[in-house]
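Follow-up to my earlier ticket, as requested here are the two runs.
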Amino acid sequence: PLVLALYIFLPRQSSTGSQHLPMASTKQLEDTLPRCDSYHNRAGDTLSGQWPIYSLVAFDEPSLKQVETDINEAEDSTSNSILMTEPDLSNSTLRDVYDHHIRLRDENDKIHHTLSIAVDQSDYQANGVLVVDLKVMTDTSQTVIGVLRCGYDDADLYCANLDIGNMSFIDYKKEEQRLWGGDDPYENQRYFSRDAASPAPPSDEQHYAWYSNVEMGGPIQDLLEPGWIDMIEGESRLHRVGGWFNFPDPWHEIRRQFPYHCLQQPELHRKLFLVAEKAGNEPDALSICKAEWNGDLGNYHYDPNSHEGRTRDREKMFAIMPDISVVKKVRPGEALDELDRLVCSAHTGNECPISPHSSRLEEFLYSQ
């Protein structure tokens, strides 16, 4: 029978005397890359992929092979890293490597799609290497691109632990701060927003709540997100969290429940959500709504595994009662695109275009 071995090790400990002087800031390197990897949902299963090693340094062929050997034969290595020699990326930037990687992963199903190693120093044994993670979870449950520096002999292990979730990227950023003079990860707004209500960058990961104020709200999901019933768990981005059509004041219930639903489902956007007010595909069937609150959930507790954990702070959340404004009315098929556009515009300060995935609705309607 096939046995899958998952190698789980704690990060290597070093004495104060072996700590390294500060290198080029990995935050500066991160800032040369996109904030989010908008392509990773096409990547599919990555658990069997090898971590590609890209060299930004002009090594000769024997030296390149030695890089691969050193990384794979380190004490705690899983020997799952593979040197990529074509094309020659020496003297390239990390952004060049990223652009190449996102093209290569669509063609090469043997490499990992979101984790890679980059050698940016000729003396990598003393100065370390870079690990690039395209799927770093932030404090607002979004995913961003992150870069960290580690010893060459830890790089393969770091990738393995990140892949299986044994260690978090922030755990390793703290190691980088301690051993390599890296920046404090908690001061990096890429990972930790100073304003909990600040809209996260638009990406395939942004999810939204929707409520129904009409009795037959179920079919609206088909118009909102065609094909949702065939989606795997976590793929649907629109979550029906309540229906208040038979309540005397549905909007009162929405104000009361929305913060608690955000606590229950931290992937939800904490300000924007939808309310269905008509059952069909009319231009004004849905209201895009905005909740006026700071979105900060740091002082509230929720544990889905126990009654006490589910209810402990529920009444506190109900008491928040944010004011709600209607941003605009839209057709169901336009709602997701418009939500993404509003989030993008709020984040960048510029007017963002409509994203191009509403054609799925046309396909769905014509198929009925």
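Run two:
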Amino acid sequence: MSIADVVIASGEVVNELPFPTWVYGVVFLVGFFALAMVTYSYRNVANRHRHKSGGADQSHAGHH
């Protein structure tokens, strides 16, 4: 077999996907939305726990 025969034969192989293509998009969007919700849940955490930081607020009083 020559290299040309191998290249031609490899072009005939079809890899079937286990799911339809739209399922991969839905899985991606659900995963992305879940990660976005995890990220969103950490918003404003520093302000909710300000009483635990103690002296850190005084040392950064002039900064925003």
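The only thing I checked on run two: The chain has a mean pLDDT of 81. Let me know what else you need.
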